[in-house]
TrEMBL record:
Gene3D superfamilies: 3.30.9.40, 6.10.250.650, FAD/NAD(P)-binding domain
Annotated organism of origin: Streptomyces ruber
Domain named Styrene monooxygenase StyA putative substrate binding: residues: 146-256
Record keywords, A-Z: Ligase
Entry keyword Acetylation: no
Protein name: Alanine-phosphoribitol ligase
Membrane-crossing segments per the record: none
GO-annotated molecular function: ligase activity
């Protein structure tokens, strides 16, 4: 039986470990926290996942919370004008629903399932020296440790990483008590509010420890008015700052949030990180190799809500590559080919996400504006969150955007 070590019990590490376990591999999972520590810890993400990524979980029968989590049927976009009014406002229908399950709930539950199914769990924060030792004892070492320190083993790929600095300051609050969206009170939708010069506010229905909730998520332009959360004392102060920004810049969202209360004392998060692509193979000091997974090798800013989706897609792609390898050695050439196969989809996520971090060019503003009058554009934009490769055909090049809009309106440029 082939022996595989997975380091990191997040979206990709657990999905891979459980998938390999189901196929009869002898899997050891190293996690720096127990299930209880994850469950009682701080929120980690907003983790909205779209149809394709959710289907990977269903395929492995890991969709334990599907019937309890809100079904996000639509994706809305609003653009704030200078007087804090909405100059653009539309909702695209998703082809399959999206869901957000608090990673504290999901990762703790998956970790317990892995152990109950006979998996070997080592609760230990792995260091490079551990991996050196383990690379001799295992057929394959997979590093799925997210944005943790182990990423330093994987060299930055400068050609694929246009940014060296964080492009947004992140602030999250999980709340109960948000009023329904007046324009669609019976449908759950997530909304991205673009506030030029300030950043983006996302509002996302979720399932958390205490049941159904909503997530408020500010992505602040560094140094701008929403980059104010570092060092904030208490969770209550954090929420109050978030609501204050909503009142000032997105009053339509604030109107729903006047009764919002934090779900729990660990329901807030602050952070920032630079989007980075890394080389996928680490050479350990003793000569062994390790293959990087998901955020370790491709980390994007969450402005397009893609990281957990990409992690699920990476885990599914790596699982297929491992199964197809059979009994042959997991050598460096195989590791590189395994990453390249994943990069075929990941490159679209990175390209689109980096584009969304910049100031939108005129043709993109026209496209987002046109979606207000043309539901087909809104629906296609929403579908791009599930499959960002589609943006190639209508988003980046002004000529393609114009041709697409002309094809819908019957006009010709
Ligand atoms: C504020 C915010 C909002 C986000 N919103 C979304 C969203 O809406 N949709 C979306 O798709 N993505 C979103 N993301 C991104 C998404 O959460 C991540 O990209 C995704 O969880 C990455 O999965 P992963 O498996 O690579 O790593 P992770 O899920 O981060 O898991 C890594 C695990 O490894 C553990 N670990 C670290 N170091 C070690 C070590 N040395 N030894 C053992 N274990 C270790 C960590 O504790 C963690 O449990 C968001 C991220 C942030 C920060």
């Amino acid at each position: 039986m082939r022996k595989i070590l997975v380091v990191g019990a997040g979206q990709s590490g657990l999905q891979l470990a459980l998938g390999l376990q189901a196929h009869g591999y002898e899997v050891t999972l190293m996690s720096n926290r127990t299930a209880d520590e994850i469950r009682t810890g701080r929120v980690m993400s907003t983790q909205v996942m779209f149809h394709t990524a959710l289907q990977h979980e269903r395929d492995l029968k890991l969709n334990f919370w599907e019937h309890r989590a809100p079904r996000i049927e639509g994706l809305g976009m609003s653009v704030a004008g200078p007087a804090a009014q909405r100059v653009v406002d539309w909702t695209g229908r998703l082809r399959g629903y999206a869901q957000s399950v608090d990673q504290r709930v999901k990762m703790a539950g998956w970790l317990e399932a892995f152990a109950q199914r006979g998996g070997r769990l080592v609760v230990h924060g792995a260091a490079v020296s551990d991996l050196d030792y383990f690379s001799r004892a295992y057929d394959l070492v997979l590093v799925a440790a997210g944005k943790g320190e182990l990423v330093s083993m994987f060299a930055r790929d400068a050609a694929r990483s246009p940014h060296r600095e964080p492009q947004r300051a992140l602030a999250v609050a999980y709340v109960h008590g948000l009023a329904p969206r007046p324009e669609c009170p019976d449908t759950d939708a997530m909304r991205c509010n673009l506030v030029p010069g300030v950043g983006e506010l996302f509002v996302i229905p979720t399932l958390t420890l205490s049941g159904r909730a909503d997530i408020l998520f500010w992505e602040g332009v560094p140094g701008g008015p929403a980059d104010v959360f570092q060092g904030v004392g208490s969770p209550a102060e954090h929420l109050s700052l978030m609501l204050g920004l909503m009142q000032r810049y997105t009053p339509w969202e604030y109107a729903r949030a006047t009764k919002a209360e934090l779900t729990d004392a660990r329901g807030t998060l602050v952070g920032r990180y630079a989007p980075t692509v890394r080389h996928p193979v680490a050479h350990l000091p003793g000569g062994g190799l390790a293959l990087g997974v998901a955020d370790v090798v491709v980390v994007n800013d969450p402005v397009t809500n893609q990281g957990a989706n990409a992690a699920a897609k990476c885990a599914a792609s790596y699982l297929a590559s491992i199964l197809e390898r059979g009994e042959k050695e997991f050598d460096e050439a195989w590791m590189r080919a395994t990453f390249d196969r994943y990069w075929e989809s990941a490159r679209h996520v990175t390209k689109w996400t980096n584009a969304m971090l910049g100031v939108p060019p005129e043709h993109v503003l026209n496209l987002i504006g046109a979606a207000g009058a043309l539901p087909a554009v809104a629906d296609r934009f929403a579908a791009g969150f599930d499959d960002p490769s589609d943006f190639e055909d209508f988003f980046y090049e002004p000529e393609r955007t114009e041709a697409y809009l002309a094809s819908l309106t019957g006009t010709h440029a």
